[in-house]
Amino acid sequence: MTMGIGPSTPVVSQTTSDSRTQGVSATKAVQGQNTEPSSSSPKPSSQLSTLAQQLSDSALRAEERDASLDRKALGQKADALLSQITGQGYHNNRARYDAEVPNTDDPELLERAKQATSFVNGRGSNPFSGLSQDQLVLIIYDDSGTFTTNERRAAWREDYDQREAWNQAVVARGKLEYSQTGKMTDFFKEVLGNYNNLPPIMQAQYPDFYAPRLEHLIEMDFNFITHRAEGKGAPEDIFEILMSSEDFANLGKRFVNSKV
Fold first, then answer.
1. What is the pTM (predicted TM-score) of this model?
2. Each residue of 105-161: pLDDT tens digit?
3. CA dist., res. 255 & res. 251, Å (int)
4. Which of 12, 56, 199, 201 could lock 27 by a disulfide, CB 3.0 to 4.6 Å apart?
């Protein structure tokens, strides 16, 4: 069974579900951040303060955006914003984006933009390496001009790498749970917990049935070896939830051999 634990470009985990909280936490996290790129020296405090202010302002804009759109419109907005940094249009305009510089004379911001352009072209380190997922999301979906297109793409790349690491870890724990208990309930709980902590623009990229389906799976506490629902629900519910017509025995086997 191939368990989809997120959309094609989801984020791994967030510490906030509200943009106002994001603004506060993002600022504090950057100012007090200890995690640095492994290939570079610690960033000066002035740079951290500048980035913190940018993220705080970005969080306010994100709050206004999220409040003005319903879930469907927000999901469409997310797709449009992502296409700016991952779609064919981005690749068709690489020369223009590589030449893009921030509208500032701040040497630190100019250097960060330059580093981002070098990184997306396969040279040097990512200037956003080590930022938390909520900070990266603010950069990725900010089209105000605060961040250059290549900075947004560099943030997306860091977010993608972090999500891939989480995906591998959560699937490994899920496989261990299945081998020991025949269940995947804790796996479903962890995936649902990740979803619940995402900001609105990330949640809007998931189908409407995503959370209810996981909640049902958790309530069922289904054992894929004994083919019994040890919680609430009938065993046959598993077919509809997982959209599979195969027998119960194969569901667990397919999970063990699955990739995210």
1. 0.77
2. 999 999 999 999 999 999 999 999 999 999 999 999 999 999 999 999 999 999 999
3. 6
4. 56
